[in-house]
TrEMBL record:
Signal peptide: 1-16
Name of the protein in question: Ras- protein Rab-2A
SUPFAM superfamilies reported for this sequence: P-loop containing nucleoside triphosphate hydrolases
PROSITE patterns to which the protein is assigned, alphabetical: RAB (PS51419), RAS (PS51421), RHO (PS51420)
Membership in a protein family: Belongs to the small GTPase superfamily. Rab family.
Keyword Signal (UniProt): yes
Native source organism of the sequence: Periplaneta americana
Sorted UniProt keywords: Signal
Record has Zinc as a keyword: no
Matches recorded under Pfam families: Ras
InterPro entries: P-loop_NTPase, Rab_GTPases_membrane_traffic, Small_GTP-bd, Small_GTPase
Length: 185
């Protein structure tokens, strides 16, 4: 089974580092800005079944927004990421979420991620604010650290499990979709 994830995010929140941590189990402190879309993949097991996750890491810069919209089609899940140390990244979540919902399957599973939890002393966005935003918009919520790997595995796996459940319930028809993927916004 193939599952496509998309990362939907604002620029500079650590989305590419999250992807690298999940796919390669390593942290790269200096990373070039994503131009357009980058891709990663990893096999996981859910309920004894091997599932290949395709992970599309989209550019967070406004200039690439129209390009990344085309990647929403066929995405079963999304990780909407903000940086807990930068209030402005949290403030733009509504715009990115509206964009994702407008251009994707209405049943897409979306997890809200507050990244950089290792930088607690520089925190500008309280965990409770992230939880409240997620609750208000029907999202799953988790804080992660790409640097320490805290909750990175869990974020991807938990989102994949939600997608898998929807497939089992018939919400997603895997026979009518080209592929299912994650997008990281």
């Amino acid at each position: 089974m193939l599952t496509k994830f998309l990362f939907f995010i604002i620029s500079g929140v650590g989305k590419s580092c999250l992807l690298l941590q999940f796919t390669d189990k390593r942290f790269q402190p200096v990373h070039d800005l994503t131009i357009g879309v980058e891709f990663g993949a990893r096999m996981i097991t859910i309920d004894g079944k091997q599932i290949k996750l395709q992970i599309w890491d989209t550019a967070g810069q406004e200039a690439f927004r129209s390009i990344t919209r085309s990647y929403y089609r066929g995405a079963a899940g999304a990780l909407l990421v903000y940086d807990i140390t930068r209030r402005e990244t949290f403030n733009h979540l509504t715009t990115w979420l509206e964009d994702a919902r407008q251009h994707s399957n209405s049943n897409m599973v979306i997890m809200l991620i507050g990244n950089k939890s290792d930088l607690e002393s520089r925190r500008e966005v309280k965990k409770e604010e992230g939880e409240a935003f997620a609750r208000e918009h029907g999202l799953i919520f988790m804080e992660t650290s790409a640097k320490t790997a805290a909750n990175v595995e869990e974020a991807f796996i938990n989102t994949a499990k939600e997608i898998y459940e929807k497939i089992q319930e018939g919400v997603f028809d895997i026979n009518n979709e080209v592929c299912y993927s994650f997008i990281v916004i």
